[in-house]
Amino acid sequence: MSLNFEDRFSINSKRMKKSVIRELLKLTAKPEIISFAGGLPSPESFPIQEVKEVVNEMLDKEGKTALQYCATEGDVILREQLIKHSKKNGMDIKEENLLVTTSSQQGLDLTAKIFIDPGDPIIVELPSYVGGLGAFNNYGAEMIGVPHDEEGESAKLLREELKVLHDSGNKPKFIYIVPDFQNPAGMTMSLKRRHEILDIAHEFDLIILEDSPYRELRFEGEPVPTIYSLDKDGRVIILGTFSKIFAPGFRVGWVIAPPEIITKLIVAKQSTDLCPPTFSQRIIGRFMEKGYLDMNIEKIKIMYHRKRDIMLDAFEKYMPEGVTWTKPEGGLFLFVRVHEHLGIDTDEMFYKAVDKKVAYVIGSAFHCDDSGHDAMRINFSYATEDQIVEGVKRLATVIKEHAK
Questions:
Q1: Is 1 part of a structural domain of the chain?
Q2: Phi-psi region of 225 (alpha: psi -120 to 50; beta: other; left: phi over 0)
């Protein structure tokens, strides 16, 4: 007789949902399918030779340290390099402002863990990063989506939502924003809007959680300061990762925040993994020390700039009327919408696309209110240049065939 485990699981575990993207990727793993689905970096961007050099040198000189546990806060060499690196983004931080994490996804989970009680409202973008939505859902947050306008999350609609919450006595725990080359929309929040969001956060006394995995990958236009660097009140937490600018296989990210928050995150992290992997951290630290990270970022920007241009050209050439898309200045994604008159539900169309051997991520996965059935996220970093053109052709064919 098998045991019934369902009634033994915790309330938190029953809230957990499988990652929509990870489940969809299982369907797109066949080599004949051109996948625009995952947020995967190009394998050609990985600095294999430089990593070999750093690993061999590091093992020869400090292998016994690199193979040992480290402090929960992170490896000392990597932390030194991250403090230097943060200055390039206008952030003058100290050791007490920094925590190294096992990927920035852990940063999202730990932040949710220390702030969210079941039923707490939080503000997210509409659309917003699915990994953030999943982390917040796991702790029982009530997510309130604020749509974008041409400058980013709408300040007008944000203030209206916060006024309603304030009047009802429900104060959100934080505002979650991906301001640079937003996942999934690909857009970047303007400087004016960043100041407006900060002013609103000050007015309602709120924390801002700034998720910034892509800002280094700008290949067009002028960089916009981080919200963290504009903050004068100490109310911003910013997350970063090496997954998109180095290699996701290392699973290393970081959190920069006021010391009181970092202290609480450290305690939360100790019951999760004790410390980040020392070996991975030391490799990255020495890699940065040699100047290789900056070199790799420049290489990636050239590569992705070309891939984005090829994809935009293909969309212009092959997509039918009634399909629109964003034109990002960096990052990894386009966000595509099919207009209402086409009568397309992109959730349903996904399986038709897989039959045609092309894949995307459904737009509804990025919407906390179950909207977005007219949208899809398209990744341009992973596929080869030839695959991008062929994949767009296939997707355009599916849209034409699926339109009512």
A1: no
A2: beta
**pLDDT tops 60 at residue 1:** no
Please indicate, yes or no, whether residues 315 and 257 belong to a single structural domain of this protein: no
Segments in 88-216 forming alpha helices (H) = 104-115, 130-138, 155-167, 191-204
User: Which residues in 115-127 are b (16+ Cβ under 10 Å) and which e?
Assistant: bbeeebbbbbbbb
Q: What is the pTM of this model?
A: 0.94
100 and 169 share a domain? yes
| 128 & 242 share domain | yes
**Of 235, 258, 293, which residue sits at a domain end?**
293
Domain count across the chain: 2
- Tell me the per-residue pLDDT of 184-210, one tens digit each, with 9 for 90 and over: 999 999 999 999 999 999 999 999 999
Q: What are phi and psi of 368, to 5 degrees?
A: -70, -15
Question: Looking at the predicted structure, is the pLDDT value of residue 38 above 90?
Answer: no
Average pLDDT, integer, range 47-73: 97
Residues of the domain holding 84 = 50-293
Are residues 244 and 41 in contact, defined by beta-carbon separation less than 8 angstroms? yes
Q: Are 129 and 183 in contact (CB under 8 A)?
A: yes
**Token representation of residue 369:** 């209110």
The answer to whether the peptide bond before residue 127 is cis (omega within 30 degrees of 0) is yes
- SS3 category, 323: strand
